[in-house]
Amino acid sequence: MKTVAVVDARKRFAQLLASVEAGEEVVITRRGRTVARLVPERPRTAAEVFAPLWDEAFSDLEAPDDLPATPVSAW
């Protein structure tokens, strides 16, 4: 984890972003107190992205019972 003062972060922003892209966490401080934290974006699955939408939009629906597996015929 790298710690950088706001003044230095302004001067070296592109370098800090390169560090974050490489996986490093950067803490930005003002007068010794943390004011921001830059962290790498982690990949998310589609399920993680759409879960909140599903819960809101379809909260009154119930999942159907699982059906037994059926063989798929050849073309």
Description:
The structure is a single chain. This protein is of the alpha+beta class. It has a domain of 41 residues: YefM-like fold (3-Layer(aba) Sandwich). It is 36% helix and 20% strand. It is elongated. The model has no long low-confidence stretch (mean pLDDT 85).
Please summarize what this structure is.
By secondary structure, the protein is an alpha+beta fold. The protein has helices spanning 6-11, 13-21, 46-57; strands at 2-5, 26-30, 33-38. The mean pLDDT is 85.
Helix and strand topology:
Blueprint: E1 2-5, H1 6-11, H2 13-21, E2 26-30, E3 33-38, H3 46-57
Parallel strand pairs: 1-2
Antiparallel strand pairs: 2-3
Name the helicity range: 25-40%
Top-tier CATH class of the domain at 2-42:
Alpha Beta
Mean pLDDT across the residues is: 85
How much of the sequence is in beta strands? Answer: 15-25%
Low-confidence stretches: none
Number of DSSP helical runs: 3
- Basic shape: elongated
Q: What is the CATH-assigned architecture of the domain at 2-42?
A: 3-Layer(aba) Sandwich
Q: Total number of β-strand segments?
A: 3
Biggest beta-sheet profile: 3 strands, mixed
Q: Report the radius of gyration as a whole number of Å.
A: 23 Å
Organism: Wenzhouxiangella limi
Protein name: Antitoxin
Function: Antitoxin component of a type II toxin-antitoxin (TA) system.
Family: Belongs to the phD/YefM antitoxin family.
Sum up the structure in keywords.
20% strand; YefM-like_sf; 3-stranded mixed sheet; alpha+beta; Antitoxin_Phd/YefM; elongated; 75 residues; phD-YefM_TA_antitoxins; YefM-like fold; Antitoxin; 3 helices
